[in-house]
Design goal:
Number of helices: 4
Distance between the termini: 40 Å
Helix content: over 70%
Strand content: under 5%
Number of strands: 0
Structural class: mainly alpha
Radius of gyration: 17 Å
């Protein structure tokens, strides 16, 4: 089973992302879905920046 997941890891991730996008589109509509995706991208970018710079690790020590 793990060999199967390793062999098809990125297609599985792509399928899951596609499923989530379809659920967002059906639930919220196109413009609200774009709004959610934009804020997700901002959150991911902020989290990546915080992880790379180590800002919060210094605060919570």
């Amino acid at each position: 089973m793990t060999e199967l997941i390793k062999a098809y890891f990125w297609p599985l991730i792509g399928g899951i992302v596609g499923l989530l996008l379809a659920i967002l589109f059906i639930t919220f509509g196109f413009l609200k879905m774009l709004f959610v995706l934009i804020f997700m991208a901002i959150g991911i970018t902020a989290g990546y920046y915080i992880q790379k710079t180590g800002i919060l690790t210094n605060v919570f020590k």
